[in-house]
Amino acid sequence: MTVLNIGSINWDRVYSVPRFPQPGETLAATSASVGLGGKGLNQSVAIARSGGQVRHLGAIGAGDEAMLEALRAQGLALEEIAQVTGALTGSATIFVDAEAENLIVLDPGANARIEEAAVAQALTRMAKGDWALLQNETNMLGRGAALAREAGLRVALAAAPFDAEAVLPLLDRIDLLAVNEIELAQLQEAGGTLPEGLAVLVTLGAEGAEYRAGGQSIRAAAHRVEAVDTTGAGDTVLGAFLARLDAGEGPEAALRYAMAAGALQVTRPGAAAAIPRQDEVEALLAKG
């Protein structure tokens, strides 16, 4: 099986700060860096590093050779990465405080310029039963889900950045919904009724994660680690979970693997660069 990730691609500009600045305050960063990010790209990297097969469909600013080279270095194919004239590659400005919490401001850039024809063409190269993965960081959320369903793919939605009005109409078009516990509560407050056949992956922060499907739920505990940066942790969990499901593991084993992957990821700075490889995750799991 293969995952077609219709996903965002960002440059992440990360600033470590002792605390988040107050309105009107100028605060000096203790360090700064630029790296790969975007929920979509993070998830594709997590899938690939967890042994899954992934095709990333996205868009960057025309002439962004540095991004193309960075994507090649991650082992991702470039055939379905469009270069958009008149738009910059998406970006995120991320503040990380002394407690490893983050505050993020997004500029969608080229992520908002993915063409429907590109999605339709990519779907012709997929097989029925493959996965399509979407997040709320591109313009192809609703239409992408519809096209994937029409092509016979299973559809997974990472419902972030969360917007109940964007998610509610999609609940009948998706097979797996990935949310954190706050997003799930917001969805329910907005009147969202989860369809009977919809599987849900809920991340619970330090309490781990829960997978709900078919009237049953499976929980996996979080590993106790010293967090450095939590940016991209949820993306790592979802990507790793999908990869292990696609590798033939059951939900319980896939969830345990995903929690170990997420635990390792937060012990390192950055988003995509911090995602662990399969051998690292398996070594952590072997420790019990």
What does this structure look like?
- Helices cover 31% and strands 25% of the residues.
- The protein is α/β, with parallel strands linked by helices.
- It has a single domain, classed as Ribokinase (UDP-N-acetylmuramoyl-L-alanine:D-glutamate ligase, 3-Layer(aba) Sandwich), CATH 3.40.1190.
- The strands form two sheets. A nine-stranded mixed sheet has the order 5-4-1-8-9-10-11-12-13, with helices on both faces. A four-stranded mixed sheet has the order 3-2-6-7.
- The protein is globular.
- The two termini are 29 Å apart.
SSE run: EEEHEHEEEHEHEHEHEEEHHH
Mean pLDDT, to the nearest integer, reads: 94
Strand content: 25-35%
CATH superfamily: Ribokinase
Biggest sheet strand line-up: 5-4-1-8-9-10-11-12-13
What would you call the shape?
globular
- What fold name goes in the CATH topology slot? UDP-N-acetylmuramoyl-L-alanine:D-glutamate ligase
Distance between the termini: 29 Å
Number of helices: 9
Give the quaternary arrangement of the chains.
Answer: single chain
Number of DSSP E strands = 13
Q: Please state the CA-atom Rg, rounded to the nearest Å.
A: 18 Å
Largest sheet: 9 strands, mixed
* Count of distinct structural domains: 1
Quickly give the structural class.
Answer: alpha/beta
The first-level CATH class name: Alpha Beta
Low-confidence stretches: none
Can you give the helix content as a percent range?
A: 25-40%
The CATH architecture is 3-Layer(aba) Sandwich
